[in-house]
Amino acid sequence: MKSASNIKEILAFLRQLEQNNDRTWFKSHKAEYDALRKPWEQDMERLIGMVADYDENVRGLAVKDCVYRIYRDIRFRKDKSPYKTYFSGVLGRGGRHTVMSSYYVHFQPGLLMMGGGIWWPEKPILNKLRSLIDAEPEEFLKIVNNKEITSRYSWDSETLKTMPKDYKADHPMAAYLRMKEYILMMRLDERYFDCDDWVERVAADLRPLKPLHDYLNYVFE
Q: Which residues contact 111 (CB under 8 A, 6 or more apart)?
């Protein structure tokens, strides 16, 4: 099935928005935005369905709960630009409000990427994740060192400069215990979307992350 949206056209619009991030410009181009956004959301709905075929945590999600709105919340920000210059969405239980390990897709000029994991978990959850990795290191390493992961994804997580308390500096899992979040990302370029159905391609390339989600989400059981 051919994708409904054209990623190149979306990126071209977003480049213009980057240069004209104000309400007057956006209002005059709202029809163009709507014409691009609607088919993209249709494709995201298809992506949810495809990922749900192999991950039960994605089943039953509504696209409106997964994709981020274009409007920025600028109430407490120095940057008063009213619009986001990207399209993105989270696929996981709870959609974009989830606290669990989930899939993420991001469409932005110069920053096309997809991946997944747990973003900035609260301290009690982070402590549980570290305890899990400490207790079950072999299973964790088997997942993240899988060739399907290492050949496509890389860690994109902020880390502590020193080891968290309760763990020795020479701990064999030190690199992972120092992480503040657990995120694997794949950077893409526009050529990635030069195919009839980018939705199917993304769904297939996200699938290797399923074991990582299962492992990390164990702390919520």
A: 86, 187
**Domain 7-220 carries which CATH code?**
3.30.930
Secondary structure of 118-132 in HEC code, one letter for each residue: ECCCCHHHHHHHHHH
Enumerate the domain spans of the chain.
7-220
199 pLDDT band, cuts 50/70/90, is very high
Cα distance between residue 134 and residue 216, in whole Å = 13
Q: Output the CA angle 164-123-113, nearest 5 degrees.
A: 95
Asked if 111 and 94 touch (Cβ cutoff 8 Å), the reply is no
Task: Evaluate the CA torsion angle 160, 162, 167, 173 in order and state its sign.
Answer: positive
119 CB-side CA count, 13 A: 13
Please write down the HEC assignment for all residues of 46-75. Answer: HHHHHHHCCCHHHCCCCHHHHECCCECCCC
Q: Is 6 helix (H, G, I), strand (E, B) or coil?
A: coil
Helices (H), 136-195: 137-144, 147-150, 174-177
DSSP element (H, E) containing 91: strand 87-91
Q: pLDDT tens digit string along 49-93?
A: 999 999 999 999 999 999 999 998 877 777 789 999 999 999 999
Query: What number is the average pLDDT over the span 120-140?
Result: 97
User: What separation in angstroms does the CA of 16 have from each of 13, 26, 172?
Assistant: 5, 10, 48
Structure tokens given for 56:
């039960």
